Amino acid sequence: MSTDPPPVDPPPAGEDAPPARRRDLPAALLIGVLTLLLGFAFTVQVRNSDDEQALAGAREEDLVRIVDEVSSRGVRLREQIADQRSALRQLTSSDSETASALEEAGTRAAALGVLNGTAPAVGPGLRMTVRDPDDELRVTDLIDVIQELRGAGAETMQFDGVRVGLSTAVTGAPGSLLIDGRPITAPYEVLVLGSPQDLETALNIPGGVVQHVGSRGGSVTIEQVTELLVDALRPLPEAQYAAPDDED
Amino acid sequence: MIPILGLVAGVLLGLLLDPTVPLGLQPYLPIAVVAALDAVFGGFRARLDGIFDAKVFVISFVSNVVVAALIVFLGDQLGVGAQLSTAVVVVLGIRIFGNAAAIRRHIFRA
Description:
The structure holds two protein chains of two kinds. Chain A is α+β, with helices and mostly antiparallel strands. Among the domains of chain A are: 14-51; 121-230, 2-Layer Sandwich (Alpha-Beta Plaits), CATH 3.30.70. Chain A is built from nine helices and eight strands. Chain A has helices at 5-8, 11-15, 17-21, 25-51, 53-56, 60-116, 139-151, 196-204, 209-215, and strands at residues 121-131, 156-159, 162-164, 170-173, 176-179, 182-183, 188-193, 219-230. Chain A has a five-stranded antiparallel β-sheet. A three-stranded antiparallel β-sheet of chain A has the order 4-5-6, with helices on one face. Chain B is mainly alpha-helical. Chain B has one domain (23-108). Chain B is 83% helix and 0% strand. Chain B has helices at 2-17, 28-49, 54-78, 81-108. Chain B is globular, with a radius of gyration of 15 Å. The model of chain B has no long low-confidence stretch (mean pLDDT 87).
């Protein structure tokens, strides 16, 4: 406070103005350097106080509180990260579950389509030709043929261009038989998918289909085929009363 | 003229170099700047009074800075650094205001 002298103190020096005016070089240099330092320090301090001074000037309790807040915030954020990670894990695992479920549903749909006759099927089997020159074969005879083939392990078949499914019905009178309402004419061409040997054996047993058709004046030719295409399709039956039970 | 040139050059240097203040100097730099500002205002007032002396200016400048920094340093050692730097800033601010008032009277005659 009593440092005020700088302006007031030097009246003696200020009295003779000439010496003060023609300030010698070292003094001028010193003043220049000092003011330069002042300007430099001033700018640096201004620049510096923008960011760090807020914390540097804070009291200890404030700093402790700030550190507390920051660390609790860190804990919260870390919990959030853990939550998000587990959610991500669940989502990815359920995603792969969905993919495998979809794949299984696809294979099931394909198998059901083959059984139901809504999808074309290919594989080894028999091509049979049933001749009925005297129009003697009746509905029950054709049903016998179908049942015999099914019993021998036929997986799917088509009868004269009509796919045979679960609800297939044979109707009509001898000579003008209908399968599922569609007329068929002799000779009937039957395509069956299944083990060719088993099917042929089943057809040829004594009292079986071949003998029975023969007793009615007809004949059956059987040909084993390794690659047979069953491509007649049935419309997808729509369940009117039964609904699928989801609890699988 | 020289002080103004020096100030401008210093500000430009500070802007260009943009250095970071060493941690140990951080509490002292603002105080030192305020003390130097006080010396500069005093010198300007002396100049207007026609009693400016380069030697007195240099010595008051340096001693102001050193004493202010020393006070804050002492305060830090005693655990009252923040309060003492506030005190120094207040005192220097009062002196700057006084000098500014004198300068104002010189320039505006009011």
